[in-house]
Amino acid sequence: MLALVMTTACAVLLESGARAGAPAERYAGTDVVVAGQPFVPRAGELRAALERLPSVERAVSELSFPSTAVDGSGRLVEAPWDGPSLGHSWESAVLGPFTLRQGRAPDGDSEVVLDGSLAGRLGAGVGDTVRIAGLDGLRPYRVSGVADTRRQLERQYAVFHTSREAERLADSDQPVRAVGVLGRKAADTEALRREVEKAVAALYGDSAGGLVVASGGGRAEAEFWDVPSPATVLSSLVGTFGVLSLFVAGFVVSGTLTLAVAGRLTEIGLLRAVAATKGQIRRMIAVEVLLVTVAAALLGVPGGVGVAVLLHRVLVDGEVLPGSFALSVGPVAPWATVGLAAVVAQLAAFAAARRASRVRPVEVLRESAAPAPRLGRRRVLLGVGVFAGAGGCLGAVATGRLDGGGGTAESMVLVLMIGVALLAPVICRVAGALFLAPVTWLLPRDGALAVRNLLRQNARLAAGVTPLVLALSLTGTLLCVPLIASQGARQAERERLLADHVVSSAGPGIAPGYAERAARLPGVAAASGQLSVDGELSRADAVRNDADPGEDDAAVIGGSLVTMQAEAVPGLLDLGVRAGSLARLGDSSMALGDGAAHSLGVTVGDRVRVNWDDGGRDTYRVAAVYSRDRDFADALLPRASAARHAATPLDDTVLVRTAPGADRSAVERELKALAAEFPGARTGDGAAESQTAGQAKSGAAADLFVLLLLAMINVFTAIAVVNTLSMATAGRRREFALLRLAGAQSAQVLRMLAWEAALTCVVALLLATGVCASVLVPLSIAVTGSAVPALAGGPLAALALGAVVVAVATVTVAGRLAMRSAAATPGGLARAVS
Q1: From residue 787, how far is each of 127, 391, 773, 774 by CA, in Å?
Q2: Which end of the chain, C or N, has fewer beta carbons within 10 A?
Q3: What separation in angstroms does the CA of 435 have from each of 6, 456, 470, 815?
Q4: Among 508, 680, 681, residue whose Cα is nearest residue 82
Q5: Beta-bridge partners for 87
Q6: Reported confidence tier of residue 830, pLDDT bands at 50, 70, 90
Q7: What HEC string does 142-198 produce?
Q8: Long-range CB contacts (< 8 A, 24+ apart) of 256-260?
Q9: Cα-only R_g, the chain
Q10: Which residue has the higher pLDDT, 90 or 544?
């Protein structure tokens, strides 16, 4: 039932994401939109070509640029749900269409029209003055009007300027982001889209690949191409959650069924003794499990829907999902979940029944308790093979041959857990043997008896250890991997930075005017903004492929590119140059990271071509090759030529270095004073981590979901451990009665059980430590160069203590209840024997 609750909740959220559609907002009034990702090159020619089409009434260019308003307290007003806050020309308002609710269109460059949502957030109306942060810093504008669309903006804010002011603020060679097409009344939308596609292909030819022609629901994808949709965010988060939940549920259900069937070996032996066949035993268990699955579904599916409602509310409140995202409960998710749960349960039942049906009746009936099953050779070999494969992958991570990010660490935990489950009885037997001598010396009665019991029933020990190891390993990995990544990023930044101050952004970015003015401050030796640009790198001397002129025979890599003021780089960064010199950087030269240089097969003096995402192309000579490219960039380019190709012409960070002999604190005060004119700029120490507010918000959202994931997994595992230990303890009534006949008191038996539970937790903690170390140490070596990973000590210690408390309390309560039953009393056992 609990497994169905977890998996149904995930399935309902995933189905909701699949059914959800993010509607177009800014382009809702268009029939067809031609969108660039990010720019539309030759937009004037495209607009003229589209207006010549017979079905087109009008084509409108949509010019966009970052434009963030500031409230009365000086804080940036961020758009809802991490969406964009953009400035536009009033001419493109018809694409919404935006209609004036109050006031009039902007008549001068100092006037703006606000969308209704932003006006309400600012509490501004017609005639009021608002402050807007653009590329040249903070400027006051008078509100000439307030406009609304048919559907209120939910994922963005919009500010409309005059055409001249919008072009000035865009400050780009390619400011047009899209061209909206308004068809004639009698035009068919699909036919119009096909006409537009032909016109685009005729104008651009092979270079039309960067443009998207969309109608209907595709307009929203074209509008928000650089903003993850709610469905995408939900799928990525819940998909991981669902896989882990299914994995945990499969482990727990399998272990519980195995233990339940093992406790019925005497009954199965009796059935076999009266001529029941192996097939009949397997079918009996399969039907029983199917009935249990159906009964569990009656409670688990509604419970899962309820948990999905709760998760949906938490995710909306945490701004992981927009408020407009509706939860959709259809028939697909419940039926798929029940079917998947039935398959998992039947596979687990088949494995347990197969082992049980092979036991010979005479052997079972001769034993006073169920014998410990023996591991087959194939299972041992498979477990060893799993460990060997995981070891090879983790070794590749440690040596840098395999990237440890992107879920690799979590995947390796699951692989290692499969190996632990396969070899758990052997591992537990070895652990019990190692504990026997020290525990016997320290606790010669209760402790020694507990260890001997665990050695005799290592399968029972394995059943309790496996879910604990899984929960501890997953929790330890999910909590520590981000810490290791953050530690590596800080370490790489400390090694790379020569700057004394790092100015980061609390908004979409820092206007380039900040770096320009910071460089002129007294006491500043060098200052430059860092701006990320999208493009592809290839060798400039690549041989053209005659069969396909658009392709080259040389390697092409999609690099992470950063632009800076070329003359300021040597004073701000120590990139570990291994060839050439950063001092040789200029308007026509670049620096390449080791990885990119190796992939392209180039070195200092060679020429590299950059194919920009806006359709442009530039060629640079390699002036230096550097080794500190981790968490930085594949290529460092001069700002003078590269910045005009940026999708968002705002600096990610600004680096500032104090001149020798100058007062560092005085420079810091000047930078803070300058930040007052550029809202969102945050000054800090050069060793501090640079992180934008958007990244911090996204990280907080991810942390929220990880905490939800870990909470549900650990609660589920805790209940599974309670269930497993209770079953195992309740099945030992005859053993307890024998101990009482031998003179043991109830308190002594309970102490023995408590020590068994404590030793079970110790074994689980040691195994979980081994699993986590196997994953975290190679990752730490690869990321930080140290074999000592960063650990979330407090939460892990609390989790370990909680595991011990839960296990000891469970067996104590279950043992007390078991000893009260008639079968577990000395008199009851004597009557049964007689």
Answers
A1: 63, 16, 10, 11
A2: C
A3: 37, 13, 22, 23
A4: 508
A5: 65, 159
A6: low
A7: EEEEEEECCCCCCCCEEEEECHHHHHHHHCCCCCEEEEEEEECCCCCHHHHHHHHHH
A8: 256/463, 256/720, 256/723, 256/724, 256/727, 257/289, 257/345, 257/348, 257/349, 257/352, 258/348, 258/351, 258/352, 258/355, 258/463, 259/460, 259/463, 259/724, 259/727, 259/728, 260/352, 260/727
A9: 33
A10: 90
Q: What single-letter DSSP state applies at residue 497? A: B
Percentages of the chain per state (helix, strand, coil), in multiples of 5: 55, 20, 25
Helices (H) and strands (E) in the chain, counts: 25, 21
| 542, two tokens | 């690549």
Question: Which residues make beta-bridge pairs with 139?
Answer: 132
Closest CA to 786 of 405, 398, 392: 398
Say yes or no to pLDDT of 805 above 50: yes
What burial letters (b/e) apply to 342-377, b meaning 16+ CB within 10 Å? bebbbebbeebbebbbebebeebeeeebbebbebee
The widest CA-to-CA distance across the chain, in whole angstroms, is 106
**Token representation of residue 468:** 């604990």
Residue 137 zone, left/alpha/beta (φ > 0; ψ -120 to 50; rest): left
Q: What is the pLDDT of residues 758-775, one digit of tens each?
A: 888 888 899 999 999 999
Tell me how many degrees the CA angle 630-645-169 measures, rounded to the nearest 5.
120
DSSP 521: S
- C-alpha 555/C-alpha 329 separation (Å) is 47
| Residues pairing with 86 in the sheet | 66, 158
Spatial distance between the Cα atoms of 370 and 456, rounded to a whole number of angstroms: 11
Contact, 154 vs 230, CB < 8 A? no
Best CA proximity match to 253, nearest among 656, 719, 767: 719
Tokens of 744: 């043991």
Q: CA 768 to CA 323: how far, in whole Å? A: 39
C-alpha closest to that of 50 among 155, 273, 271, 204 = 204
Contacts of 803 (CB under 8 A, 6+ apart): 468, 471, 472, 718, 721, 761, 764, 765
- Alpha carbon separation from 194 to 48, 200, 722, 732 (Å, rounded): 17, 10, 63, 75
Query: Which two three-digit tokens encode residue 252?
Result: 């727990």
Percent of the chain with pLDDT over 90: 29
Cα–Cα distance measured from residue 322 to residue 119, given in angstroms and rounded to the nearest whole number: 20
User: Does 516 have pLDDT greater than 60?
Assistant: yes
Nearest Cα residue to 588 out of 615, 626, 618: 618
Residue type, 1: M
Q: How far apart are CA 724 and CA 498, in angstroms?
A: 57
Token pair for residue 277?
A: 């066949």
Q: Is the separation of the CB atoms in 97 and 123 below 8 Å? A: no
HEC readout, 79-90: CHHHCCEEEEEH
Q: State pLDDT tens for residues 423-460.
A: 888 887 787 777 767 777 777 676 777 777 777 776 67
Q: Are 601 and 594 in contact (CB under 8 A)?
A: no
Which pTM does this prediction carry?
0.75
Question: What is residue 647's predicted lDDT score, i.e. its pLDDT?
Answer: 75
Q: How far apart are CA 664 and CA 684, in angstroms?
A: 12
The residue to which tokens 């806050």 are assigned: 85
Q: Among 807, 734, 701, which residue's Cα sits nearest to residue 317? A: 701
Please give the torsion angle defined by the CA atoms of residues 683, 685, 686 and 692, in that order, rounded to the nearest 10 degrees.
-50
β-pair type (577-580, 176-183): unpaired
* 526/518 Cα distance (integer angstroms): 9
Q: Can you read off the two tokens belonging to residue 19?
A: 């059914």
| pLDDT tens-place string over residues 677-696 | 888 788 875 544 444 444 44
Contact (CB, 8 A) for 88 and 158: yes
